[in-house]
């Protein structure tokens, strides 16, 4: 078990704003689709929250929807692109809904079954470990703008849980979650919080 408290780091996790595929439930890994108008509004709304915070770094997925969300939140000048924060690679299941995948593989979920041609949970967890190590090297409050599944996996790595436990951590678009510590234990301080108008 890694004691992340030594670097006195707190992670602010921001999921990008709404896209057409987040509405339809299609798995959006590496496809670079834009935010909807509602997604842009949601991302701009995050600026009210982040304007009161002092981030030591802002690490952002290379995918456009995360980059645009961070920019609209008022952090454009602070963005450091972090390739390890790209969304989970769904391989052959890219663009499909869970219902469509289950026509081929009954009972399929990302947490319990593989994605042919994509990445494994172990590979995604390894990327998340690198992000956490990077943030710990920076210290302080670090903002991460990324995607639903990779942020859920990152939270399990922070908590030293199996990545499959991410199934318990629902994450909506344009929400903020905070990973911190209670005494010596990595902990969730806030999860899936919607910023008020």
Notes on the structure:
The chain is α/β, with parallel strands linked by helices and 197 residues long. The chain has a single domain, classed as Rossmann fold, CATH 3.40.50. It has six helices and six strands. A six-stranded mixed β-sheet has the order 3-2-4-1-5-6.
Give the % helix: 25-40%
Shape: globular
CATH A-level architecture:
3-Layer(aba) Sandwich
Strand neighbour order, sheet with most strands: 3-2-4-1-5-6
Structural class: alpha/beta
Question: In percent, how much strand structure appears in the residues?
Answer: 15-25%
Sheet having the most strands: 6 strands, mixed
- Supply Rg: 16 Å
What's the SSE pattern? Answer: EHHEHEHHEHEE
In total, the number of domains comes to: 1
CATH topology-level fold name: Rossmann fold
Terminal Cα span: 39 Å
Strand segment tally: 6
Helix and strand layout, with pairings?
Blueprint: E1 9-15, H1 20-24, H2 37-50, E2 57-60, H3 64-75, E3 79-81, H4 98-104, H5 121-138, E4 140-146, H6 148-158, E5 175-182, E6 185-194
Parallel strand pairs: 1-4, 2-3, 2-4
Antiparallel strand pairs: 1-5, 5-6
Helix pairs in contact: 2-3, 5-6
């Amino acid at each position: 078990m890694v004691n992340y408290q030594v670097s006195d780091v707190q992670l602010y996790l921001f999921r990008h704003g709404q896209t057409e595929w987040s509405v339809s439930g299609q798995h959006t890994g590496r496809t670079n689709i834009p935010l909807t108008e509602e997604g842009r509004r949601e991302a701009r709304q995050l600026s009210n929250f982040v304007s009161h915070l002092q981030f030591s770094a802002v690490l952002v997925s290379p995918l456009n929807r995360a980059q645009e969300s961070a920019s609209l939140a008022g952090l454009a000048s602070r963005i450091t692109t972090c390739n390890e924060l790209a969304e989970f690679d769904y391989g052959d299941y890219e663009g499909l809904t869970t219902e469509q995948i289950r026509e081929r593989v009954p009972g399929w979920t990302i947490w319990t079954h593989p994605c042919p041609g994509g990445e494994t949970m172990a590979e995604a967890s390894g990327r998340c470990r690198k992000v956490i190590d990077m943030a710990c090297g920076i210290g302080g409050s670090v903002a991460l703008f990324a995607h639903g599944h990779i942020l859920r996996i990152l939270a399990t790595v922070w908590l030293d849980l199996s990545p499959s436990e991410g199934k318990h951590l629902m994450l909506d678009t344009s929400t903020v979650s905070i990973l911190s510590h209670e005494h010596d234990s990595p902990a969730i301080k806030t999860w899936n919080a919607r910023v008020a108008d």
